[in-house]
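Support request, please re-run this one:
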Amino acid sequence: MSFGDIRVAERADWLIERVATAGTLVLRKLGETRAGEKAIHRFLSSHHVSVDRIVETLAARTAAQCVGRRILAIQDTSEINFSGRDKKRRGFGPGGDGKTPGFFIHPVIALDVESEAVLGLVDAEIWTRSAGRVPARRKRAIEDKESIRWLYGCQAAAGVLSEAASVTMVADRESDIYPLFTRKPEGLDLIVRAAQDRCLSDGRMLFAALAETKVLKTSLVKVAPRGPGDKGRGATVELRAGSVSLARPQSLKRSEACDAIEMTLIQAREIDAPAGKTPLLWHLLTTHSVASAADAEQIVQLYRLRWRIEQVFRALKSDGLALDDSQVIDADRMFNLAAIGLAGAIRTIQLVDARDGSPRPMSDVIDPAFRPALGHLSKTLEGKTARQQNPHPPDSLAFVAWIAARLGGWNCYGKPPGPKTMRDGWDRLAAMLEGYLLATQSIKPGIP
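Re-run finished. Output below.
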């Protein structure tokens, strides 16, 4: 990372790898010793370290991975709430409930359309709310609202991913704001799940616009389980699509937005839902043109990939790295830790994908300079039987994951390696590669 101090950069890279392999953001666990914990505190407090520097550096690495690829840029917001853990916290405003101290994280992540792999972080906004009353929402310009983050996310994606073959921004219902459609950067497409039954230029309402449109296709789709005891189910879904002209909301002045914007509306509606089940219903607004059932299905499939950012949030919070359990009390240091945590959560997902046989290249996660060392290491870990050979292409991420699994104690037989085995293996592998780097480049490690 380019923090202006090579020791800080080395410590940042080490910390991200440590987060992913240790599976935690609790500093006493990350540092392992009191000295190690203090070193991490010094890093988070360094004047060389900030959320912007961390995010900009990670975004540059993501951009390099996205060159020439079809990319989905997915953005969403998550809250970190310190309910029951708010003592001594400093610099935090109210969370979503308006009372409990907390803060918000709004990342943009890049996915490869072909492989559905998470490639990296594109942008992130991290903030806490001011205490006290604020002016009414309708009296504030978009620039003075938290919702401006959706526009900033689009602008960041268009800039960072400018060398990708194509970029499509995907976002959920919270992003359904008219200025997002009218201020879309050139070269970036949108897929947004509609939340508001908007007025159209011809006087109709958005959600009824496709009522008389013919069904493009009827498909049976699998609905994921939605809670304890739910085993999931199949759903029969009708797909419709058509062009719509969204009218400017009355709350916006003509000086703020154009009178109308042309979009494509896709409706996915479940028919004959079982008794007691809420029928599936999606209204997707997109800037992509849709000329066939296959085009509409592609848009729906791209929107369904939005679940990968939910994976990032789960990996970041109590189900994974436990950012909300961190004992960091100052907001600035917590924000820096959250940015590092985003990188660690993404790396965790990449490692899980690799364990499951991801076809992604090694270079997406590991520096190609380590390829000779990894090839030699793989040979030393292989056995005499076919099942004890590394079955993956040498340049693949799965090749590296096999090495990590072996280092973690997996014997190549029985079940696939579990999370603890993989974490232990990646931890050992990271230490071995660090030793290789020190031996070949004579880099002296330092703790700022």
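The first strand starts at residue 70 and ends at 75. The chain has two domains: 49-327, 359-441.
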